[in-house]
Amino acid sequence: MAKSLFEKVWEAHTVRTLSSGETQLFIGTHLIHEVTSPQAFGMLREMGLPVKFPQRTFATVDHIVPTNESVEPFSDSLADAMIKELRKNCEEYGVTFFDLNTGKQGIVHIVGPEQGITQPGTTIACGDSHTSTHGAFGAIAFGIGTSQVRNVLASQTMAMAELKVRRINVSGELSPGVYAKDVILHIIRVLGVNGGTGFAYEYGGEVFDNMSMEERMTVCNMSIEGGARCGYVNPDEKTFEYLKGRPYSPEGEAWDAGVELWKSYVSDADCDYDDVVNIDASEIAPTVTWGINPGQAISISENIPSPDSVTGDEKAGVIEALEFMKFEGGSPIKGIQIDVAFIGSCTNGRISDLEEVAKYIQGRQVADSVQAIVVPGSQVVAKIAEAKGLDQIFRDAGFEWRAAGCSMCLAMNPDKLVGDQICASSSNRNFKGRQGSPTGRTLLMSPLMVAAAAITGAVSDVREVFGVSETTTA
Amino acid sequence: MALEKITQVSGTAVRVPGNDIDTDRIIPARFMKCITFDGLGEFMFYDVRKNEDGSDKPHPLNDPKFAGASILLSGNNFGCGSSREHAPQAIAKAGFSGVIAEGFAEIFFGNSTTLGLPLAVATKEDIQTMGEAIEADPSIQVTIDVANQRIHFGDQEVTCYIRESARGGLIEGKWDPIAELLEGEAEIIATAEALPYV
Description:
The complex is a heterodimer of chains A (about 475) and B (about 200).
Chain A: H1 5-12, E1 14-17, E2 23-26, E3 29-32, H2 38-47, E4 57-60, H3 77-93, E5 96-98, H4 108-114, E6 123-126, E7 140-143, H5 146-155, E8 157-160, E9 164-171, H6 180-191, E10 199-204, H7 206-210, H8 213-221, E11 230-233, H9 237-243, H10 252-264, E12 275-280, E13 287-289, E14 297-299, H11 313-325, E15 340-343, H12 345-348, H13 351-361, E16 371-374, H14 379-387, H15 390-396, E17 400-401, E18 422-425, E19 441-444, H16 447-456, H17 462-465
Parallel strand pairs in A: 3-4, 3-6, 4-5, 6-7, 9-10, 9-12, 10-11, 15-16, 15-18, 16-17, 18-19
Antiparallel strand pairs in A: 1-2, 2-8, 13-14
Chain B: E1 8-11, E2 13-15, H1 23-26, H2 46-49, E3 71-73, H3 86-93, E4 98-101, H4 106-114, E5 119-121, H5 124-136, E6 142-145, E7 150-153, E8 156-159, H6 164-171, H7 178-183, H8 185-193
Parallel strand pairs in B: 2-3, 3-4, 4-5
Antiparallel strand pairs in B: 1-6, 6-7, 7-8
């Protein structure tokens, strides 16, 4: 019987059926970080249990890391206690820790792929909803809560009901100035922030075939923002090429055997999906959120919705969002002045994101009214960028060049909005208060759109600011 | 590990209206700088309840007439966004023993169930009716009958839906699956051995 990648991976990792009817699923790779693991280790200690597969557990520190100071102890004593706790737990339980002094630290969803830990046909769990990122490699990757982190630490398994699979085809070619970020914002706009409930999203079609691995990661990263428990792209030659030679990738004969096995996980051409959605790439324009969830997005040339333009439940949502954002319904999104520009996060903090922006900002200057920061997603990304001189390009243009971490995506560190500042952000969530100020306002967009806003001081169209006229690959 | 059999939860109720209430709103990230879950209750819905100077906003959660409520009512897609278990932990530690909403985000649903916090799905109309009833008389008891998937409030009753895997776990005292997961030792090893990358 023809099967999807999801079904094949699920089957290969099924331990047994639990009394609840849920599946006990084996988790091949467990990624942990400082925010959602300390309580799990605490529970493990209380129960007197070891970590079952420490060799399949990898840790890094990202959420609370200051990006503008490198000395410990951190000035925030709570943050300092968290990194020390993770260090202690990793040492005591024999878990590999990509610590600050390893040159490999970074946002967990950037570290996994760049170390070659993220591989096709595997199951991955992490106490972080953006774990869906790893699906770009054809892995089935779940964000989990802390009790589940404990379960995976203790048993290398978790209890879960099997998901349905929705195939999302995006056909055709993306227009110039339209990026992976625009594709996923558009998908969420079309299907809704809870449209994915009960589903794994399988992304396919020409647009995904043509994307680089890093672009696929951007799309899979935000699957959770559409309510899907995970999202993935079938592995192909690009996947294998990306993984070849990475520190944790198989080598020699094991590499050849690995590639053969990985190919076997690809969805069968005639498999039955529970749902299929077709989107034409030509419909997708540079996209910006105007509201308080990632589904409240419009193309750069559209006007912000007014309460009168929608009906039912959506009306209350529009009214609430407009009130929080202090925007007027029916007015253009283009031209809204911004205070802060943030390039980084597990969505768009990879080397190709930085390269694409650097290509266009040379000779340009960040507007005086804007604070612009660039936060590489990992120490590895930072090192590559610095070797290519990108840090200098950013600095010359008036951006602050920071150290690796989650930074202003969720502001569990010193990088925060102040008051009701508006931030043009390459991150993934525009929730109320997300960027650290309860009244702070976030506009999600692609990294190049963030750069355009930084330079003009207002939400702008990349195609006009930078004359982007050819399809690029970042 | 014997867990309590949660067949029903009961108490007065309060409504936090709106759809797509995310876990950042339930517990802002700045309160997650902690290595235990202790004390999270006081920060539940902090920015929804408080002005930046720390004074109270007008909100049902600050309204004395709903003080002591232990059942929370809300809209659709409740608990979306971040996977932080700090969100259901904060709700439970603030004294809530059940949530009724039009729908729940999946990770939040799993996190809550594992803590023994029942989440019941009810229709928009029924939640509206319940909301009006508790507004009219905040002292009425609201009971989520987990076993029978019913909600009683005052002298009224509506049906609700609790996913079978969660409902069974709650009523049989198996809502935290850790014991059963560990019992699968032999099968876990067999599964691992069949996977070349492990």
